[in-house]
Amino acid sequence: MINVSADELASIIKQIDAALAHHEAWREVLHRVLICRLPAPASEMGSAPHEHCEFGRWLYSPANAHLRALPAFRTIEALHAGMHAKAHALYELRLGGHVVSLEAFDAYAQVAEAFRDEMAALRARVRYTLDNLDPLTGVFIQRRLIGELESALQRLRDAGEPCGLLLFEVDLKAINHSRGLGAGDAVLCAAIGQVREALASRDRIFRLVAAQFLVCLPGRSVDDVNALARDIRERIRVAVAGTLDDERQTAAIRHAAMALQAGVPVQAQLDEALGRLAVASDREMPASA
Q: Domain named GGDEF: which ranges (predicted)?
């Protein structure tokens, strides 16, 4: 799972809105320069102008290096750089006293439109994701789960791709009682942050109820799920002690591991997994194929 928090998603939406507004004004300046023969903005005549606009400064800041690694942002980065490069070429033609050809303007207009469309599509995807996240932990909410499992089951039937399921629950009753609900929430957020770091980009975490979660693991076997479960249990224990600054403080952790089966309805398999979790103790529970 890509470790992008709900706050980051909200920030991305804000930046997309600002970028679309900024580049609309930027486009108007370009048109005025071409039509009214005004001086070109100095910011567009230097090297790498796409890095110096408001959106470019945000995109290329060190804090957003992880976002630039995502496919959607790589596409937007290329379109944004191309749009500024095409605009730079138009400014150069205009300042050199040359006529801007229809072909040159259309080349700019096409990439500018593609940039706007891609930004709008990304905003819609981010908004959809944000609307389907648990506000406390930043993982997906339960109503997304059945659709995710149905898709995984279809891939299993069509292509034979396995899908592991890991259910786990962190018992926060003792912490909530001794430290308060705020401490319990802080522990849960820290624990899920640790879990997210252990997952791949295709993996998805869903919050079921309270401190009960399910991890959908495409391409993973039962053995893979068990190995991950051991790692996650240790990560959660470290998060509990670290958040409360007390090595003696622990929380019971229960888990159940299994793999999707092609011939069994999703809901039946989910009910089985929940049943296994309900009877699990604070130990490693054998996996079910």
A: 161-289
* Domains of the chain (ranges, CATH numbers): 6-131 (1.20.120.30), 140-278 (3.30.70.270)
| Class of residue 191 by CB neighbours under 10 A (exposed 0-12, middle 13-18, buried 19+) | buried
User: What tokens were used for 273?
Assistant: 């997994």
Whole-number Å distance between alpha carbons of 233 and 88: 54
- Asked if 276 and 285 touch (Cβ cutoff 8 Å), the reply is yes
Task: State residue 283's pLDDT score.
Answer: 52
Where the chain has pLDDT below 50, the residues are 1-2, 284-289
E-strand stretches of the chain? 140-141, 163-170, 204-207, 212-218, 253-259
Task: Show the tokens assigned to 12.
Answer: 């991305």
Question: According to the model, what pLDDT value does residue 206 have?
Answer: 96
Structure tokens given for 263: 């011939």
Question: Is residue 251 exposed (0-12), middle (13-18) or buried (19+ Cβ within 10 Å)?
Answer: buried
Q: In this structure, what are the phi and psi dihedrals at residue 168, rounded to the nearest 5 degrees? A: -145, 155
pLDDT score recorded for residue 78: 97
Can you spell out the DSSP letters for 198-218?
Answer: TS-TT-EEEE-STTEEEEEEE
Q: Please, is 159 exposed, middle or buried when counting C-beta atoms within 10 Å of its C-beta (0-12, 13-18, 19+)?
A: exposed
Query: What is the model's pTM?
Result: 0.65
